[in-house]
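User: quick one, sequence for these tokens?
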């Protein structure tokens, strides 16, 4: 291997120093020149600098890792709070639905303990009454249809028979 350099830049400057007055050129030769500068400085950065080399270079800012962590943690906490609030609302809605189901079940028990002399049809409306002797019964006849007998009956409510064999107030 010969000590003579074949690169034009190196051959025009035998001392291997950079002449600040020498024109660097343009295009591909600029990149090659930057590589040479990096090699001469003892760096293996392939012409990439840690600092901007000209006005058009990308801005390089040091990262504040503490700030990045704080922002990420705050975001995670906000997301967790939002999800917990949503789960609370869903749990409250489920509890309310459970209360309504329990009320329908208790009402169904009360109606099925009454005298029922027919088979209730799903979707139909029925009336629950209590006689003077305390017995309860289910009827198709509404409170205004009883006429003079209505005085001996207490109307406890009007209910619709549902497909799941429960009842709901109308």
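Assistant:
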């Amino acid at each position: 291997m010969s000590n003579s350099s074949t690169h034009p830049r190196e051959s025009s400057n035998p001392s291997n120093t950079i002449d600040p007055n020498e024109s660097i050129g343009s295009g591909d030769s600029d990149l090659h020149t930057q590589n040479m500068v990096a090699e001469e400085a003892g760096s293996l950065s392939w012409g990439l600098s840690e600092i901007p080399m000209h006005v058009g270079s990308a801005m390089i800012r040091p990262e504040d890792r503490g700030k990045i962590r704080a922002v990420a943690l705050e975001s995670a906490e906000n997301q967790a709070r939002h999800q917990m609030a949503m789960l609370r609302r869903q749990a409250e809605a489920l509890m309310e639905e459970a209360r309504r189901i329990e009320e329908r079940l208790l009402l169904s028990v009360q109606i099925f303990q009454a005298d029922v002399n027919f088979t209730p049809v799903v979707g139909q409306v029925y009336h629950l009454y209590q006689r003077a002797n305390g017995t309860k019964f289910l009827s198709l006849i509404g409170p205004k249809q009883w006429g003079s007998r209505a005085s001996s009956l207490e109307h406890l409510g009007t209910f619709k028979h549902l497909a799941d064999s429960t009842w709901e107030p109308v």
